[in-house]
Specification:
single chain, 663 residues, alpha/beta, Rossmann fold, ten-stranded mixed beta sheet, three-stranded mixed beta sheet, 18 helices, disordered N terminus
Length: 663
């Protein structure tokens, strides 16, 4: 869901253009399969029975709601085999197959995963769908499924992703074509399920869907007669901004959320704070936001390192670990078993301290550096440097070499998507055997011309050769931030509300980057939020679940104890997020006309500046032998005191600067 030290970015950047061109020979040409009973006429409700899943699914031994699945064309001229695969579940019997006259008011939802090139079956089977794959490969009913509340459809997009199909030259060229294809798909869906044309649509997704959804929304707004009635968009940990803004810029905030990454070392924090300033990443968020819109940060691949403090020195080609912006597979559900630190571990920690002292001495010696005092090796790829530091000097991440399982996009001990999980090897859940079982394939009317895979290197414009200006994944389209204010204006005109949410344990698209994007967007005639998000919300058991804030039809939710895939890592909180803030319009966190906030601002006591401190304990271990590591209480207390003083000093400096700048 992009450069998580992208497996994909690394692979693309490590190959020459010639080699990439040769790889084009391996781009698949796939097509849907015609199963018995396929109607011969145009799409209509007659097709409902064809797409109905009638055959039993392997290992599904419990009742599930009626569901429909298969491939539907995107209507792209000259590419009849370009289709999107869908799997739809009814909320109640007959709710999805109702006629246009029977229901025009009940909301329905669509879910998109990211990549680009990652299947949304990941979301269905590991996150917010009714079926979940377990650690043993069996299937279980998900008690927190979003389909319990409304009809929901999980869609593999763009063409060629997951069980979607594309001919050899039919892959999308850019995000405008992704949107055009998706609207073509929707125009056929509503012919099969007519009520969906008039019912309010909740368009939801995560990660690189943070690029898909704004482009789809923009395309829908441009139509005089769109095929669906869009009511709300919701994006989780999404790629609204470019690589630097989503990944490198918030490195300091990631450290402050999880200081375990630097072993609670205040000198190391000072180093990264200095680098953040030198790189121009120290953006001040104010409420209301002052000083106009932020200038976009330079893309690492567009400026290789001249004299600008914001220039980079081609960090992607150096990246030796994988963090492709795609949804990763769910981690094992094995509970943690606290253990004491062994004598051997203490000896290793002592040796690590010696190495760390040498590192700090080198880093604090600023002589002989290019670009002033910016680190000559990492440049402004600060998150990369944080990862390297953790894997070399910080327990438990330095305990073993990094392991990657590309087929399920799993990483350990440093899990970029979910920082609290440092197990190695990682313990992913894998839906591949279930989805490639021929019984499943037949039941879902899935293609026989390909096997399902969680993700693949998406060939934009049907080639692996990146065009000039394309991002690390070959996508030539600019990040949505470039038109987000315009989109917000049109959303207001069309009555479409916006929900943006983040998992606090995610370092791939850290929540601070998302909040910067919000504060850099004009909606309802005002730039950003006028008050700082700090209203607490709870799950249905009364546990603190995070922070919510709402103004002028925009909602931001920060979910505690959740990584990049929020419904995976904190399903109970995610269900509340969906029910109360996406499906419904809870006023919790809403700024009222007089300036008061519904639900108060009680989360302020939990915040340290713009940071919601992460979990104190880190899960680590080998396989199912897991433990929890927590630093001594004195270490944590010392860090908390230090960080509070740093935040207080920064607030004073900002206040002084504001007074000085005032007319």
């Amino acid at each position: 869901m992009y450069s998580r030290l992208a497996t994909l970015a690394l692979f693309l950047c490590s190959l020459s253009t010639t080699t990439l061109g040769q790889r084009d020979n391996n781009i698949p040409s796939t097509f849907p399969h015609d199963y018995p009973g396929k109607p011969s006429g145009p799409f209509s409700p007659v097709w409902q029975d064809y797409f109905l899943v009638k055959d039993p699914l392997p290992n599904v031994t419990f009742p599930i709601n009626r569901n429909f699945a298969g491939n539907i064309p995107v209507n792209r001229a000259g590419h009849p085999n370009d289709t999107l695969f869908f799997w739809a579940f009814e909320h109640a019997r007959g709710s999805l197959t109702a006629s246009a006259k029977e229901d025009t008011t009940t909301p329905w939802g669509i879910w998109l995963n990211g990549g680009p090139g990652s299947s949304s079956m990941l979301g269905l089977l590991l996150e917010n769908g009714p079926l979940h794959v377990t650690s043993t490969g069996s299937m279980a009913l998900n008690e927190n499924s979003w389909e319990k509340l409304v009809d929901y459809i999980w869609v593999d997009s763009p063409v060629g992703t997951g069980y979607s199909t594309a001919d050899r030259l039919g892959y999308v060229a850019d995000e405008d074509q992704t949107a055009e294809d998706f609207i073509g798909f929707l125009s056929n869906v509503v012919k099969i399920f007519p009520s969906l044309a008039k019912r309010p649509l909740l368009l939801t997704g995560e990660s690189y869907a943070g690029t898909y959804i704004p482009y789809i929304t923009k395309a829908l707004f441009s139509m005089s007669n769109p095929p669906v009635k869009l009511a709300k968009i919701a994006i989780g940990d999404g790629t609204l901004v470019n690589v630097d803004e989503s990944e490198e810029m918030p490195a300091l905030q990631v450290i402050e959320t999880y200081p375990q990454l630097i072993g609670y070392d205040t000198d190391v924090h000072k180093y990264f704070k200095e680098q953040t300033h030198l790189c121009g990443f120290d953006i001040n968020l104010t409420y209301p936001q002052r000083d106009g819109h932020f200038a976009p940060l330079l893309n690492t691949e567009e400026d290789g390192g001249g004299g600008s403090a914001r220039a980079r020195s081609d960090p992607i080609s150096r990246k030796a670990r994988s963090k492709a912006l795609k949804s990763s597979a769910r981690r094992s559900e094995m509970p943690a078993l606290p253990k004491k630190i062994s004598r051997h571990m203490r000896r290793e920690m002592k040796e690590r301290e010696v190495r760390r002292d040498a590192w700090k001495k080198e880093k604090r010696d600023l002589t002989g550096r290019a670009n002033g005092t910016i680190d000559p090796f990492y440049g402004c790829s600060l998150m990369d440097e944080v990862y390297d530091y953790a894997m070399n000097f910080s327990f438990p991440w330095d305990g073993s070499p990094q392991t990657e399982i590309p087929s399920v996009n799993a990483h350990g001990p440093l899990d970029f998507y979910n920082l609290i999980d440092a197990r190695n090897p990682p313990q992913p859940l894998d839906p591949t055997p279930f989805l490639n079982d021929n019984r499943t394939r037949t039941a879902l009317h899935a293609p026989t011309s390909k096997n399902w895979s969680l993700t693949f290197s998406y060939p934009f414009n049907s080639t692996h050769t990146r065009s000039p200006g394309a991002n690390a994944f070959g996508d030539p389209s600019p990040a949505p931030m470039i038109f987000l204010s315009e989109l917000a204006t049109n959303a207001s005109k069309h009555g479409v509300k916006v929900v943006i949410y983040s998992g606090n344990d995610d370092s791939v698209v850290a929540h601070y980057a998302t909040e910067v994007a919000i504060q850099n967007t004009t909606f309802g005639g005002i730039q950003g939020f006028t008050k700082k998000p700090q209203t607490p919300f709870t799950d249905d058991s009364g546990n603190f679940a995070g922070i919510v804030h709402q103004e002028r039809d925009w909602t931001f939710v920060l979910v505690d104890h959740a990584g990049h895939e929020v419904p995976e890592f904190n399903p109970a909180a995610a269900l509340v997020l969906f029910r109360d803030f996406i499906l419904s319009d809870s006023t919790l966190g809403l700024v009222e006309l007089g300036g008061s906030v519904v639900g108060g601002e009680g989360a302020a006591s939990r915040l340290v500046g713009d940071i919601l401190p992460g979990q104190a304990s880190i899960l680590f271990g080998n396989g199912t032998a897991t433990s929890l590591f927590k630093a001594p209480s004195a270490t944590i207390a010392s860090w908390d005191k230090y960080l509070s003083s740093v935040i207080r000093e920064s607030s004073i400096e900002l206040a002084r600067a504001t007074v000085t700048a005032a007319p």
